[in-house]
Every structure is written in C-alpha cells, then in structure tokens.
Amino acid sequence: MTALEFTYQIGTFSKFLRPFALRLTKDGDDANDLVQDTLVKAFTNRDKYQDGTNLKAWLFTIMKNTFITQYQRMVRRNTFIDTTDNLHYINSMESLQENKAVNFFISEDIQSALSKIDSMYRVPFMLYFEGFKYHEIAEELQLPIGTVKNRIFMARRDLKNHLHMYA
C-alpha cells in the first residue's frame, strides 16, 4: 500500500475513532487529543502496518493502547511513594492533617445559634444532646413526654435554620 492510499484509508476510518475516544475519555477535548495522538502514531508507524490486515482494528488498537498508556502515566504522576521503611503513600488521605481552626469556627457558629434559640426549646434539646432519654427529660422538667419531643424537634428546626450554611 502506498503512502497516499494509506493516508486515504486512515482518513476514511478517522470518523469512527472520535466516538470511541469519547467513550474512553468522557471529555470532548481529551477525545480530540486522543484521536490526534492515534493518527500521529498511525502515520509514524505506517511501516509496521501489514497489508491485508484490518486497518480499522489496527487504529482502534492504537487508540486503546494510547489511552491506557496516558492513563497510567497520569496515575503515576499523581501518586508519590515514600521509599522509607514504612512505604507510605504521601498523597493518601490517611496522612492528611486538618487545621483545628475550621472546627473552632464551626463550634462558635453552633454556640451562637444555640444562644438564639428560646430557652424553652434549648434546655430540653441540650439535655437530649447530653444523652438523657425523653422520659428522663420529661421527669426533670416536669413536662409531658410529647411536649419534650416537640420542643426538641423545634430546637432542631431552629438550629437547622440558623446553620443553613452547613447544609
């Protein structure tokens, strides 16, 4: 097959490559890049193509192997391995240290929201939050158990409204 015939054949099959590339990459720009890489590899390796074999299958194989190679390269680039005795993954979530400032601000927001709730609702809620059962709270505050449940529900609803930014 001459270079001109080879180029013509690849041109006719190139329209089938993009849908396959989209299925692999799930992104339009990445799919276009993958098709381009595949065609460049096909042209540069034209001498490795054997006449009489399925050119379309050859192109799909090049594309699949190119995608796998690029994916493996991306994974290797994003994973660093510590070569000390422990062999930890440096970018793993287990080694992540959190700043306690975020928890401090959240705690301040919760305390502020609790202070805005009427004490009629806040007291039963705090007792429940501390681990008391409904019937224990009802005895302590000398209220019917249904009233205790209702006040805890109302306190939760008010807290949810005050803390809507954390939803």
Using the coordinates above, name the CATH class of the largest domain.
Mainly Alpha
Helix-strand category = mainly alpha
Low-confidence stretches are: none
At the fold tier of CATH, the topology name of the largest domain is Rna Polymerase Sigma Factor, Chain: A
Radius of gyration: 32 Å
Number of strands: 0
Please count the helical segments. Answer: 7
Report how far the terminal alpha carbons are from each other: 65 Å
What do you see in this structure?
This protein starts with a helix and ends in a 5-residue tail after the last helix. The chain is rod-shaped. By secondary structure, it is mainly alpha-helical. It folds into 2 domains: 3-78, Rna Polymerase Sigma Factor, Chain: A; 100-166, Arc Repressor Mutant, subunit A. It has helices spanning 3-25, 28-44, 55-78, 100-116, 119-129, 134-141, 145-162. Helix 1 packs antiparallel against helix 2 (28-44), helix 2 (28-44) crosses helix 3 (55-78) and helix 5 (119-129) crosses helix 7 (145-162). The chain has 7 helices and no strands.
